[in-house]
TrEMBL record:
SUPFAM superfamilies membership: ATPase domain of HSP90 chaperone/DNA topoisomerase II/histidine kinase
GO molecular function terms noted in the UniProt entry: ATP binding; phosphorelay sensor kinase activity; protein dimerization activity
Catalyzed reaction equations: ATP + protein L-histidine = ADP + protein N-phospho-L-histidine
Stretches assigned to the Histidine kinase/HSP90-like ATPase domain: 283-371
Species whose genome carries this gene: Nostocoides jenkinsii Ben 74
Protein name from the UniProt record: histidine kinase
Domain Signal transduction histidine kinase subgroup 3 dimerisation and phosphoacceptor: 175-241
Keyword terms of this UniProt record: ATP-binding, Kinase, Membrane, Nucleotide-binding, Phosphoprotein, Transferase, Transmembrane, Transmembrane helix, Two-component regulatory system
Domain of life: Bacteria
Residue ranges crossing the lipid bilayer per the database entry: 65-84, 90-107, 114-134, 140-159
Top-level EC class: transferase
Length: 375
């Protein structure tokens, strides 16, 4: 109850639109026709004029739900009092049932305080009207249930919309994380290679100009590859999911990471039986291998060799990336964006990832992903 009392108004209430004006115009016409058809109704023509005056107030039912509701039921309460004083028949038109619309709007768009205050006033006015008409107990109970029905419908619609908004936010957050992983895995790998080769070019530029030219050519190739990957990513983001999947790299593309003449040298070994993997698993293995290789090139001190091995272990796919760099005893992986993204990517497919020093030195990254996972 306390949480409901403190609940703020829902965000994103739509502005007054064409359908609102059509609603008000239709109710105005109904009130006018009913007034003309019932000239003998007590209080004519004033009750008709009162009803037609109230209808435009409905335009503000979302922005000012409590005021709109209180105005409508305030009119109903005033007519009930007048009925009791004059001891006459029921005053007002049937078209004044339109006051139930802001009751729904109150539950849908009002704050917790407004809903509690509004519903309390509505029930009080309803009780006054039932007293004026000398209603039976069954009528009283039925009327209360009828009013609370509008409140319930408004509340249900409100919380369904809130649930949908939360789901939308979660989807957007998941998409941001996916995009962040893709950007990191794709761009960081190639930029790291460019940086390493640029450093090498600076070292040999003075003593081995021909070697520097070769390295500059490799840098140009890496830059072109990076640009191609970025363009592919933009295209993937613009296309639908089915079309995007066809552009993603997988296990079959790991051979492109092999660089036997580079420093460190990169060796890739892929088991023959690793075919027809689910697209999500296929892409994840490639991205994990790419990111692990990037980390080895960047951080493996003194590394001369990096081995990428992909094999089948039972119903799982196992990826191992091992370098021969210097690894002080007790060294632990620092949870940077790369390692966090790799762990998330593996866990999303029901797998696991470890990164730790190897028994023979160097660093070992191992990921195990169920081969039947679906993305």
């Amino acid at each position: 109850m306390i949480a409901a009392w403190r609940e703020p108004r829902p965000a994103g209430s739509p502005p007054v639109g064409r359908h609102d004006w059509l609603l008000v115009g239709g109710l105005e016409a109904v009130a006018l026709v009913e007034g003309l058809a019932r000239p003998d109704l007590p209080g004519q023509p004033y009750v008709t004029a009162l009803a037609m005056t109230y209808m435009p107030v409905l335009l503000w039912r979302r922005r000012h739900p409590l005021i709109t509701c209180l105005v409508g039921f305030g009119i109903a309460g005033a007519l009930a009092v007048l009925q009791i004083v004059t001891r006459s028949e029921a005053l007002g038109l049937a078209s004044m049932m339109a006051i139930l619309i802001p009751l729904y709007a109150l539950a849908r768009w009002g704050s917790g305080r407004e809903v509690v205050a509004g519903v309390t006033c509505v029930l009080a006015v309803a009780g006054l009207g039932l007293y004026a008409s000398a209603a039976t107990l069954a009528t009283v109970m039925g009327s209360i249930v009828f009013l609370l029905l509008f409140v319930t419908v408004g509340t249900v619609v409100r919380y369904r919309a809130d649930l949908w908004q939360r789901q939308e936010r979660e989807i957007r957050n998941a998409e941001r994380l996916t995009l962040a992983r893709e950007l990191h895995d794709t761009v960081a790998h190639h930029v790291s290679a460019i940086a390493v080769q640029a450093q090498a070019a600076r070292v040999v530029a003075q003593t081995q100009p021909h070697r520097a030219a070769e390295i500059l050519g490799a840098i140009e190739a890496e830059a072109s590859n990076t640009l191609t990957q970025m363009r592919n990513m933009v295209r993937i983001l613009r296309e639908d999911e089915e079309g995007a999947d066809t552009a993603k790299l997988g296990v079959a593309d790991l051979s492109a990471l092999s660089r036997p003449d580079a420093n460190p040298a990169v060796e890739v070994s892929v088991a023959v039986e690793l075919t027809h993997l689910p697209r999500s698993v296929d892409t994840a293995v490639y991205r994990l291998a790419q990111e692990a290789l990037t980390n080895a090139v960047r951080h493996a001190s003194g590394a001369t060799h990096v081995a990428i091995e992909v094999s089948r272990v039972g119903s799982d796919v196992r990826l191992r990336v091992v370098d021969d760099g210097l690894c002080p005893p007790g060294m632990r992986a620092r949870p940077g964006f790369g390692l966090i993204g790799m762990t998330e990517r593996a866990q999303l497919l029901g797998g696991s990832l470890t990164a730790c020093p190897g028994p023979d030195g160097g660093w070992v990254v191992e990921a195990v992903i169920p081969a039947g996972s679906r993305g």
